[in-house]
Amino acid sequence: MKIHEYQAKEMFKKYGVPVPEGGIAFSADEAVGIAQKLGDYPVVVKAQIHAGGRGKGGGVKLAQSADEVAKVADAIIGMNLVTHQTGKEGRLVKKVLVEQGLNIAKELYLSIIPDRSSAQIIIMASEAGGMDIEAVAAKTTERIIKVFINPLLGMQSYHCRAVAFGLNLSPAVIKPFVVMLKNLYRLFIEADCSLLEINPLVITTEETVVALDAKVNLDDNALFRHKDILEYRDLDEENPLEIIVLI
Predict the structure, then answer these.
(1) pLDDT the model gives residue 241
(2) In whole angstroms, what is the distance from residue 49 CA to residue 28 CA?
C-alpha cells in the first residue's frame, strides 16, 4: 500500500525523524492559513499524489509571500499532474502540503528496501540526492552506497558508520544522522514497510539533518497488524479495477 508524503512524514515524526514543519491543505485559503502559522517565508507548496517526479511536473513550488502561496496553491489544487510515474493520463491533485523552507547545504539520497535475492535488508544512500536516482545508479554506480543488514541480527552501529562515512558527512552531522538512521530502520521493521525512501535528505547550513521528502510503501499482507496505518489508504489514488477491501 502506498501513502502520501504528508502521511509518511507523520510516521517519521512518531519515530523521531526530523521533518519540516507544515500542514495539509485542500484549498488555497487553507494553504495561506498554514503558511501564516509557519510564520516565515519562503514556504514550499507540494502536490500530494502517489507518484514521484512532482517537481518536474510543476507540482512543487516555492512561495515568498501569502499572495504567492494563494496563487501557487490555487494553480496546483485541481491540476492534472503528469509525471514519469503517472503515465500520460496524469493524476488529479486534491490537496497540497505546505512546509517551511530550509537553508539547504547538501542534498542526499537514502532508502531502505528488502533484498529477496540475499534475504537481507539494504540501506542505499548517495551524495547525489535530489537527482534522478535511477539514472545515477545506471550511469555512475560508484555513487551508490549499499549496506546489507541481516534482519535476524538487526542494524548495528557499524552499519550506520558505513553509511555516514560513505556520504562524507562532517563530524557534527554524523551523530544526528546515526540517530535518525536507527529510527528509520526501526520504523521500517515495525511498520512492515516494503520501501522507505527519502529524496532528498538534506543537511542544513545549521548542520541539522531533515527529511525533506518522504516515501513509504507498506506490505499489503501485513496490514492486518496495522489498523492505524490502514486508515491512511487513499482510494482516490488507486486504480478502480485494482481496489480491494483490506480486512
Answers:
(1) 66
(2) 17
**In this predicted model, what pLDDT tens digit does every residue of 45-79 receive, in sequence order?**
999 999 888 988 899 999 999 999 999 999 999 99
Catalytic residue among 197, 206, 231, 242, which? 197
Instruction: Please identify which of the residues 5, 6, 68, 109 carries the catalytic annotation.
Output: 109
Q: What are phi and psi of 55, to 5 degrees?
A: -65, -45
Residue 197 annotated among the catalytic residues of the structure:
yes
Identify whether 41 is a catalytic site residue: no
pLDDT number for residue 36: 96
Cis peptide before 171 (omega within 30 of 0): no
Cell numbers found for residue 45: 507548496
Question: What are the pLDDT digits (tens) for 108-126?
Answer: 999 999 999 999 999 999 9
Global pTM? 0.91
**Cβ within 8 Å of residue 155, ≥6 positions away:** 149, 181, 182, 185
> Which domains does the chain possess?
21-100 (3.30.1490.20), 104-224 (3.30.470.20)
Which residues lie closer than 8 Å to 74 by C-beta, 6 or more apart?
Answer: 28
